[in-house]
Design brief:
The protein is mostly beta strands. It contains one helix and eleven strands; from the N terminus they run βββαββββββββ. The chain folds into two domains: 1-43, Single Sheet (N-terminal domain of TfIIb); 58-109, SH3 Domains (SH3 type barrels, Roll). The longest helix is centred in the middle third of the chain and has 10 residues, at 33-42. The protein is elongated, with a radius of gyration of 20 Å. The protein starts with 15 loop residues before the first strand and ends with a strand.
Length: 110
Amino acid sequence: MSELPNCPQCDGEYTYEDGPLLVCPSCGHEWSPADEAAAAEEAATRDANGNVLENGDAVVVIKDLKFNGGVVKVGTKVKNIRIVDGDHDIDCKIDGIGAMSLKSEFVKKA
């Protein structure tokens, strides 16, 4: 028997299939499994060119980024990034600078 996902609205566990839709009897929410896949793809972190970024990727900074202790220059390569939630959605360590959080809109996949 296949495992059906919990309801995305109320997190109810008693979902069932009704034709092409999934239905939650607790709250009455109906959704398509294709909608879940589209939502997951939309939520992915993307670089300045629209490429999907994942944990462990290497990226290159595309703009001088000023911060309290100096500047990260254009072309700086950052290895082994970590994707996090929030405004600054990349955590990384930059050689010569240290730990830093970056916005994905200012990097491109290497």
